[in-house]
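re: the backbone from monday

yeah here it is again, tokenized this time
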């Protein structure tokens, strides 16, 4: 979501005649687009703001947008008095106001609705992978999560608006569409005629666009994985055989305290339905270790679910208390050293599973999306249908889109391959 917001901010400023620069000391406006999902991320924002303040030109405007802006609000001005603007994730379309009134301070952290999508200019060019937000916010209110406060309750964009952006992306360079939402498979929109649209309808309509070759979505919630959506993996070949469906913990007691209202059996039923619909599908997940009250036995159950599902990619974190969340004041907070130890154990096991899957791909030929050259310009970077990075030693070209790549080597982090001549 932040990548998408960054693209739209850049496009908005381009339309105002500004150009990007990599040097803080050259910039006329510096914008930190921020994430508040973990405490460490918030702390890094203010450390970076201090660095920007010391390096920027005296008359350069600078400020923050996104979830940290919503979290700290006017307190950001107290911590960094030189700030010019603090804009929440639904308010960054107001940035031109600060350009028109550079001497004014701009604070807007209202949650609002979906107005920013109406205010933002249409993209004139799109990257090969285009992110299309279809909803924002979340109604699930997990006890560890700050998203309902920083992004608000669930709001789904209209079906026509989403398809307008998707078609525009296809016409301006996109080959792959990734639908975005804090609870993306909870997308639900009813038009003025009473017709209801779900994520499966967006996938079905997007698949009709000739320029679009690959479709995926993130991040999904287990109880929202409805049968119509599962069926799409069976009938739509453009939908990639890869799904991020976070479980967070393998312990029923921990899931209950997290306010994650699904059972392990229910979660596994969904996995089994997905594998029946698309036998080659692979799953990734998110994990939180060291949640308040997590016992050694609870942690062992998390390792067990990782072994049982065999996630090919995962994001795992130590529990981080966030303000305004129920978990932050729960008893039996886990000491940092135990969280660190458990995270290392889980990461090691997840890494082994990922390596085993990657090594099992050696010898296979897969249609892979060309993302561009690496930093040296000597190699090409492709992305497999399972979102693995594949490095190919060949002369980079601008006209590649999707090529069949034979996988020749693998490690935990990436694959090596060569363009198939078959």
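seq for it, each position gets an aa:
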């Amino acid at each position: 979501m932040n990548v998408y917001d960054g693209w739209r901010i850049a496009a908005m400023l381009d339309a105002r005649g500004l150009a990007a620069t990599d040097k803080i000391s050259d910039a006329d406006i510096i914008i930190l687009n921020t994430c508040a999902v973990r405490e460490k991320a918030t702390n890094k924002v203010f450390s970076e703001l201090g660095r920007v303040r010391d390096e920027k030109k005296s008359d350069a405007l600078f400020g923050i947008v996104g979830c940290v802006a919503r979290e700290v609000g006017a307190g950001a001005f107290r911590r960094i008095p030189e700030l010019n603007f603090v804009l929440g994730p639904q308010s960054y379309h107001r940035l031109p106001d600060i350009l028109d009134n550079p001497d004014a301070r701009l604070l807007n952290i209202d949650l609002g609705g979906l107005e920013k999508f109406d205010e933002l200019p249409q993209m004139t060019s799109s990257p090969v992978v285009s992110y299309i937000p279809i909803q924002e916010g979340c109604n699930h209110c997990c006890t560890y999560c700050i998203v309902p406060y920083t992004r608000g309750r669930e709001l789904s964009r209209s079906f026509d608006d989403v398809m307008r952006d998707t078609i525009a992306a296809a016409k301006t360079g996109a080959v792959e569409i990734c639908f975005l939402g804090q609870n993306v498979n909870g997308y639900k929109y009813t038009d003025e005629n009473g017709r209801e649209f779900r994520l499966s309808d967006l996938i079905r309509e997007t698949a009709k666009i000739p320029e679009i070759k690959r479709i995926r979505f993130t991040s999904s919630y287990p109880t929202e994985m409805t049968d119509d959506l599962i069926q799409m993996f069976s009938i739509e070949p453009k939908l990639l055989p890869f799904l991020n469906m976070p479980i967070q913990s393998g312990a029923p007691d921990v899931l209950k305290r997290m306010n994650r209202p699904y059972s392990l059996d229910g979660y596994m039923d969904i996995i089994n339905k997905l594998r029946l619909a698309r036998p080659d599908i692979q799953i990734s997940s998110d994990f939180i270790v060291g949640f308040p009250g997590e016992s050694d036995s609870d942690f062992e159950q998390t390792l067990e679910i990782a072994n049982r599902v065999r996630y090919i990619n995962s994001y795992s974190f130590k529990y981080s208390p966030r303000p305004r969340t129920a978990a932050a004041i729960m008893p039996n907070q886990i000491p940092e050293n135990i969280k660190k130890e458990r995270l290392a154990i889980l990461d090691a096991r997840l890494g082994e599973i990922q390596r085993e899957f990657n090594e099992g791909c050696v010898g296979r030929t897969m249609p892979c999306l060309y993302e561009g050259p690496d930093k040296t310009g000597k190699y090409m970077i492709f992305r497999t249908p399972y979102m693995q990075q594949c490095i190919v030693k060949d002369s980079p070209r601008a006209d590649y889109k999707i090529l069949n790549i034979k996988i020749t080597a693998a490690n935990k982090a990436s694959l090596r391959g060569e363009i198939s001549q078959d």
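The domain at 2-108 is CATH 3.40.50.12160 (Rossmann fold). Residues 336-360 form the longest helix (25 residues).
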